[in-house]
């Protein structure tokens, strides 16, 4: 019997990125989100696209797990969540400890970098982290 593929919950939509960014509150978080949006577009060379209702993604790649599950996901992206700006570092944080040590106030999950405010971190170091992650993605999932 053929195995059925579950549909991914996170998928690109036709929602307008600018409308999402303009609705972020409070104002300081909206400005931080717009700064991240411009940075990720510049560093990734991809136009932003909404992934689900709250994630801004740049680029796309196709993955296939050993289990046979497969799908598509953004190469990098972020969301302006209530408690923090969440940056999606799809490649994770292996080999990024020296950069994270210099970043400033943050926390991490498996592939998420959480920042309360951009004023809490070094934006140059953040750029280095994003560039390193995009290189990892380009090597693992060539475009």
User: Largest sheet at a glance?
Assistant: 6 strands, antiparallel
Shape: globular
Order of helices and strands, N to C?
HHEEEEEEHEEH
Mean pLDDT, as a whole number?
Answer: 91
Number-wise, the strands total 8
Briefly summarize what is shown.
By secondary structure, this protein is an alpha+beta fold.
Please explain how this structure is put together.
The chain is of the alpha+beta class and 143 residues long. It is 35% helix and 22% strand. It has 4 helices and 8 strands. The strands form 2 sheets. A 6-stranded antiparallel β-sheet has the order 1-2-5-6-8-7, with helices on one face. It starts with 16 loop residues before the first helix and ends with a helix. The model has no long low-confidence stretch (mean pLDDT 91).
Structural topology:
Elements: H1 17-23, H2 27-44, E1 48-51, E2 55-58, E3 61-64, E4 70-73, E5 76-80, E6 85-89, H3 97-103, E7 107-108, E8 112-115, H4 123-140
Antiparallel strand pairs: 1-2, 2-5, 3-4, 5-6, 6-8, 7-8
């Amino acid at each position: 019997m053929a195995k059925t593929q579950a549909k991914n919950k996170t998928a690109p939509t036709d929602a307008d990125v600018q409308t999402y960014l303009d609705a972020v509150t409070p104002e300081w978080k909206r400005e931080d989100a717009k700064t991240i949006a411009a940075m990720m577009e510049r560093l990734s060379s991809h136009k932003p696209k909404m992934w689900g209702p709250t994630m801004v993604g740049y680029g796309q790649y196709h993955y296939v797990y050993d289990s046979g599950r497969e799908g598509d996901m953004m190469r990098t992206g972020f969301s302006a969540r209530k408690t923090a700006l969440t940056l999606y570092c799809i490649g994770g944080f292996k080999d990024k400890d020296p950069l994270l040590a210099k970043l400033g106030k943050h926390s991490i999950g498996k592939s998420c970098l959480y920042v309360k405010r951009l004023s809490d971190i070094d934006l140059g170091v953040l750029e280095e982290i994003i560039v390193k992650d995009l290189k990892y993605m380009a090597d693992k999932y060539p475009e």
